[in-house]
């Protein structure tokens, strides 16, 4: 970002002063943001180290790569795609999925209105708890692409608005694990609100990052008499869900097979549909598997950014499913602490996640 001192300029708490087009929109909905340097009075300037790309977005970018190429060439494709998106939009927002992710960086400068926000100081390593889809971002280079972690190491700068929460990275949890964990911190906090004692719970994507965390929460909140059913796809994710041991039943199946999933769930739940379904998958077309597996007046929580909420709403109507459809909100009061404390207190979960996000 070019130097352009703006600290005396007053910014909107929600960042509308950074919107280039369309004027009047909020940063997340904007097509293009001003990612130029210098900060307004209510902004924090960060030196970015790592982008943790949203899983649905990362998968979509990878899927557009040329077939039959080497791993190194696929990494180059991802890097080029990220650079192209950021250069066009001034932020990392996948134009297909609409989602972003979050980042790890060090605090370079505070605007006077947010000096020392949340106890942070210049030089602190922090993770932003707001989406990259609304974060002004300028990239100088991409240093490394990690296809297994959905993470991209970069050199660049980002701007955080006063309304945007962030967390200082704790010393007892590795940087990459903390970044990955805080990216989905809304999931365990909201799952804890939704799961009731003795509930039957279905978790789609139980072997992924957010699915593992939600499985741990569901087991704790629902209690020993509850029925927790996990669904995973692929050997690695199934093995992780099995190692965690939170689910009473583990199904290895394709979450896009709505009727097939419903039948398997009912077969493992005494012929009944579940009280709560938590969808954590990173592929589209899993809305109806979630809805058909959930009892009337039950709840379906879509944490996945691959969800089509039109498909969910119209699909539920089309099959006469009177279920509460809940949108996964990445923010909840105290969600960062909740997520970190969960990992600290669940040794199995921590070990599995460390295996996924070490280094």
Can you offer a commentary on this structure?
With 359 residues, this protein is α/β, with parallel strands linked by helices. It contains eleven helices and 14 strands. It is globular and about 65 Å long. The two termini are 29 Å apart. The model has no long low-confidence stretch (mean pLDDT 94).
Secondary-structure map:
Layout: E1 19-21, E2 32-33, E3 43-53, H1 55-63, H2 71-89, E4 101-110, E5 125-128, E6 137-146, E7 151-161, E8 166-168, H3 175-183, H4 186-194, E9 200-204, H5 209-222, E10 227-232, H6 235-244, E11 249-252, H7 258-267, E12 274-279, H8 287-292, E13 294-302, H9 309-318, E14 324-327, H10 335-345, H11 347-357
Parallel strand pairs: 9-10, 9-12, 10-11, 12-13, 13-14
Antiparallel strand pairs: 1-2, 3-4, 3-7, 4-5, 5-8, 6-7
Helix pairs in contact: 4-5, 4-10
Gap between N and C termini = 29 Å
Strand content: 15-25%
Shape: globular
| Average pLDDT metric | 94
Number of strand segments: 14
List keywords for this structure.
single chain, 359 residues, alpha/beta, 6-stranded antiparallel beta sheet, 6-stranded parallel beta sheet, 33% helix
Concise account of the structure shown:
This protein has helices spanning 55-63, 71-89, 175-183, 186-194, 209-222, 235-244, 258-267, 287-292, 309-318, 335-345, 347-357, and strands spanning 19-21, 32-33, 43-53, 101-110, 125-128, 137-146, 151-161, 166-168, 200-204, 227-232, 249-252, 274-279, 294-302, 324-327. The protein is of the alpha/beta class and 359 residues long. Strand 6 and strand 7 form a beta hairpin.
